[in-house]
Amino acid sequence: MTAIGWIQIILFCAIITALVKPLGWYMTKVFNGERTFLSPVLRPVEGAIYWIGGVDEKREQHWLTYAVAMLLFHVGAFLIIYGLMRLQAFLPFNPAEQSAVAPDLSFNTAISFLTNTNWQNYGGESTVSYLVQMLGLTHQNFLSAATGIALAVALIRGFSRASMRTIGNFWVDVTRVTLYVLLPICVIGTLVLVWQGVPQTLGPYVEATTLEGAKQTIAVGPVASQMMIKHLGTNGGGFFNANAAHPFESPTALTNYIHMLCIFMLGAALTNVFGRMVGNQRQGWAIFAVMGVLFIAGVAVTYWAEAHGTSTLSSLGLTGGNMEGKEVRFGIVASSLFAVITTAASCGAVNAMHDSFTALGGMIPLINMQLGEIIVGGVGAGLYGMLLFVILAIFVAGLMVGRTPEYVGKKIEAREVKMAMLAILVLPLMYLGWTAVAVVFPPAVASMANAGPHGFTEVLYAFTSATANNGSAFAGLTGNTFFYNLTLAVSMFVGRFFMIVPAMAIAGSLAAKKSIPASVGTFPTTGGLFVGLVVGVILIIGGLTFFPALALGPIVEHLAMNANTVF
User: What value does the CA radius of gyration of the chain take, rounded to a whole number of Å?
Assistant: First the structure.
């Protein structure tokens, strides 16, 4: 661990914190339908979209109608992606002449991208055409990210409104976040990435002759446009198989830092949107503080573990830390920071192989996902996931004092608590249930590259990543099999929609309630005590749920490592 390493981490945290308020102010104006500096250009486009789609922007929806519209939207997304992949051999913009993608892999990929997971059981440059990358995958990166943000804002409206039956209009929310937030940032960001050396072309793959005289095919394509939205929208799917470690995805230290900032900026800013819309920005800062405490703790542990390496390396006199699986251009600190960011934010992009991290270094990304994508989380998903834990924390506080719990002027009653528990408990059902099946089902066991606790962690990580809609892989596991394509797709679907629907039910229930003014008996939710309570509830629930599985994987692997046993 070095001073320059900590400076990089502190600088990242400082920039994200500085972006929270201005981005939160701008996004609040967008979702309130107020005029912004982009309105003269984009308002006519927005109006034309509503006219073509037959949408009345002034007509809001009940929570159930909002949820149904969202689900139907995703049915269309599934059909588009699946159809493109199955028919890509007959479609244009396919210079490498990629053949049709297998049915089970097409199914897995379609579910993956519409749920904002971007789990990839394939190498992009060797499997899919430019058209599929653009029209199928990059296009859905925008829409799945927009959906997550729209759903978060719908839940915020539940807290901010009183005696109302509506929580907004799904079609309007998705249109506005795409037009006014995602597209402008991505246009500028794509140009910056091209300036830094990221390819953006429809030309064919490049044939090169090496110094030895051998022929080499270098894959290129419309990379920069996908890189920007994959990080900004916390999607994570790589244009290339090596993802953000590939020099065409991240050619410089600056692009690596831009990627990390983009992963966090919108999710962090949504905490400020929450504070503004409920009328008290300190409420947003308190949620941001909870996320910050958990994030910094994770970074510290991962950086420490990777910088100290393993006892086996130390016994060989190698004291420079664990460089296995790291991209040498980025080193230990940037790789550790990226690993925690991408799993805290439910992004899934990687610039190092998590499978090659130390046991404890690899455990933190696993825990980040197991907690339910709440530490900033996927854009939108992180906020509504965190608000579910806030509801539970407020409920616990109410039990302590024998009073009906309140939060931002709304009573938290049995319906909200039940819905929050349903959304939270469905996640470990997928994480742990499918892992239990996979480690005893012979075809699934055959996909494991490692034995012992490390192999178990590979499987646990895969189902955790899929259910948390993260998409990063621990590597070492052959996922492109019928079993994993099907079961991971089920995990992704359940992890996304079985969390969204209860969250929307909570939004509808809260919006219909009256606002209650704070009193002397109201638990304060903007100070350190509240932050500590929420952090404690998250860690207790996570610890009770996942400690046995972690003990079978990374914890026992760490203990074995200290006895010079490696896997």
Answer: 23
Residue with tokens 């719990």: 405
Q: Is the pTM of this model over 0.90?
A: yes
Structure confidence at residue 210 (pLDDT): 83
Angle, nearest 10°, between helix axes 414-438 and 528-550?
30
**Cβ-Cβ contacts under 8 Å for 383 (sequence gap 6 or more):** 152, 155, 156, 267, 270, 271, 274, 287, 377
Distance CA 456, CA 566 (A): 14
For 359-377, what is each residue's pLDDT tens digit?
A: 899 999 999 999 887 888 8
Is the pLDDT reported for residue 403 higher than 80?
no
Are the beta carbons of 359 and 554 closer than 8 angstroms? yes
Q: For residue 85, what are its two tokens?
A: 């992949």
CB atoms within 10 A of CB 184: 15
* φ, ψ at 185 (rounded to 5°): -65, -40
In the chain, % helix, strand, coil (3-state, to 5) comes to 65, 5, 30
Model confidence pLDDT, tens digit, residues 432-469: 999 999 999 999 999 888 888 988 999 999 999 999 98
Cβ atoms within 10 Å of 212's Cβ, excluding its own: 6
What are the residues whose beta carbons fall under 8 Å from the beta carbon of 469, sequence distance 6 or more?
A: 115, 116, 117, 346, 373, 378, 381, 492, 495, 496
Q: Mapping DSSP to helix (H, G, I), strand (E, B) and coil, where does residue 406 land?
A: strand
User: In this structure, are residues 223 and 198 in contact, taking their beta carbons and an 8 Å threshold?
Assistant: yes
Separate counts of helices (H) and strands (E) for the chain: 22, 4
Question: How remote is the C-alpha of 105 from its chain's centroid?
Answer: 21
Single-letter amino acid code for the residue at 118? N
Confidence of residue 520 (pLDDT cuts 50, 70, 90): confident
Residue 372 in contact with residue 289, Cβ under 8 Å? no
Q: Which one, of 191, 103, 94, 223, lies nearest residue 489 by Cα?
A: 103
- For 564: left if phi > 0, alpha if psi spans -120 to 50, otherwise beta; the answer is left
Reduced to 3 states (helix: H, G, I; strand: E, B; else coil), residue 215 is strand
At 90, the amino acid letter reads: F
Cβ(264)–Cβ(15) below 8 Å: no
The answer to whether residues 531 and 93 touch, using CB atoms and an 8 Å cutoff, is no
Q: Judge contact between 450 and 476, C-beta under 8 A.
A: yes
Which of helix, strand or coil describes residue 62?
strand
Q: What is the DSSP string of 97-108?
A: -PPPPPHHHHHH
CA–CA gap between residue 388 and residue 295 (Å, rounded): 18
For residues 506, 508, 509 and 515, what is the CA-based torsion angle, rounded to 10 degrees? 110
H-run or E-run covering 418: helix 414-438
What are the Cα distances from residue 122, in Å, to 98, 481, 485?
13, 11, 11
Per-residue three-class SS string for 502-562: HHHHHHHHHHCCCCCCCCCCCCCCCCHHHHHHHHHHHHHHHHHHHHHHHHHHHHHHHHHHH
Query: 60, 116 in Cβ contact below 8 A?
Result: no
What whole-number distance in Å separates Cα of residue 159 and Cα of residue 407? 8
410 closest CA partner among 152, 159, 153, 156: 159
Report d(CA 160, CA 180) in Å as an integer: 22
